[in-house]
Amino acid sequence: MVNRRSFLQKSVVAGATLGIASCAPSALRLAEKQLNIQYSSRYLPKLRISLDRVVKETVGLRPYRTIGPRIEKETLGSKTLVHNYGHGGSGWSLSWGSAELATKLVDSSWASENSIVSTATDAMALPPGSARKVAVIGCGVIGLTTARALQRRGYEVTIYTKEMAPDITSSKATGTWSPAHRLIDSSNVNDTFFEQFKQMHQTSFLSYQNLLGLGNLVVWTDSYDVRQDEASLAHGDLPANEKYNFMEVLPKPKRLADKEHPFRAPVVYRRTSMVFNIPSLLKMYTDDFLRFGGTVKIQEFKRLENLDALPETCIVNCTGIGAKRLTDDPHLTPIAGQLAFVIPQQEVNYRIATQSAYTINRKDGIIVGGTHKMGSWETTPSHEDTERMVVAIKKVADTMYT
């Protein structure tokens, strides 16, 4: 029996040789590459991207703390205040683990008041019938996951927030698994940070694994880094160290041979990661919170002293970038990131990353990003930034082999 692929390949090559003698070498390479792509499991539908397909632009302010997230408690008059903010570009990725750490601090506060335990490591859930009321300030992903974690421990929770989705910073995030992105200045990494980060990482990754298969809330996707040289590849935000081996929960990036991808570039890597469909997840978190007895109140707090008027004796501060004004945190600064939303393509299930822009395939659109403006409070989208990012991706997409 004749091997069909071998026969077709020889036929295509022969046809190219006879039909285009004057440019036979290039024609042969093109014919072989097209055939390899056609029969490859890495065939990619072509991305349609242009400025006229952009339907929305947003700017989100990442709450970056140079010394890492603030997850600690303090006494505020007669109240206990637990802080849970400052996750930079890793808020979505680390949300569930961060919520668990904050909940343990609430547990320890409740327990110490009742002479049961006095440390967060000995934290214990509330006994049946003895629920206490806790206030959560902020309704972004950190606030919602913290509220849900508290509910699971038996607390009655009220969320106080200035705004709700889609008018919150969490709605303007990229939504990818990036647990160490803009999380801390590498010079400030120490053992205390490492232990905290490890707990957040492991808890959060497991939580998102448990959401896989529930519709399209969380999905796996392949990302193709398309570069002109190795030097332009993005690197992690944490220093290389063997003790971070626990982060190796994803397949290692693979450099692809020319015939394994449809891009016209000398260096192409494939990476696999998770994408969070943000609108769906925020709705699910909010619906779950309300279904389990939670209450949301629209209220803004401009100073910590304003929290004293709340009826709850324990308050969790999940205000993200809003904590800058609320707490006057000297370590907190915004990193502005702009996104352009391109009309979605159902068949496109991969990402592209270049030196100056990237895409993320979500249900609400093909997201194009690539700005990181440290210290900027500007939330008005820049058309120039959108044009630069879209043009960079279009250049890659338009030259794909099909």
Cα separation of the termini = 30 Å
Instruction: Identify the CATH class of the largest domain.
Output: Alpha Beta
Count of runs of 4 or more consecutive helical residues = 8
Strand elements, count: 15
Q: Could you estimate the helical fraction of the residues in percent?
A: 25-40%
| Main sheet record | 6 strands, mixed
Summary keywords:
elongated; 5-stranded antiparallel beta sheet; 6-stranded mixed beta sheet; 30% helix; alpha/beta; 2 domains; 8 helices; D-Amino Acid Oxidase, Chain A, domain 2; 402 residues
Task: Explain this structure.
- The protein has 402 residues and is α/β, with parallel strands linked by helices.
- It folds into two domains: 4-39, no CATH class; 51-398, 2-Layer Sandwich (D-Amino Acid Oxidase, Chain A, domain 2), CATH 3.30.9.10.
- It is built from eight helices and 15 strands.
- The protein has helices at 4-19, 24-39, 91-113, 141-152, 191-209, 278-291, 323-327, 383-398, and strands spanning 54-65, 70-76, 79-85, 133-137, 156-161, 218-227, 254-255, 267-276, 295-298, 314-317, 332-342, 350-353, 358-362, 365-369, 373-374.
- It has a six-stranded mixed beta sheet with strand order 2-3-10-4-5-9, covered by helices on one side. Strands 1, 11, 13, 14 and 15 form a five-stranded antiparallel beta sheet that branches.
- Helix 3 (91-113) crosses helix 4 and helix 4 runs parallel beside helix 6.
- The longest helix is centred in the N-terminal third of the chain and has 23 residues, at 91-113.
- It is elongated.
- 39% of the residues are buried.
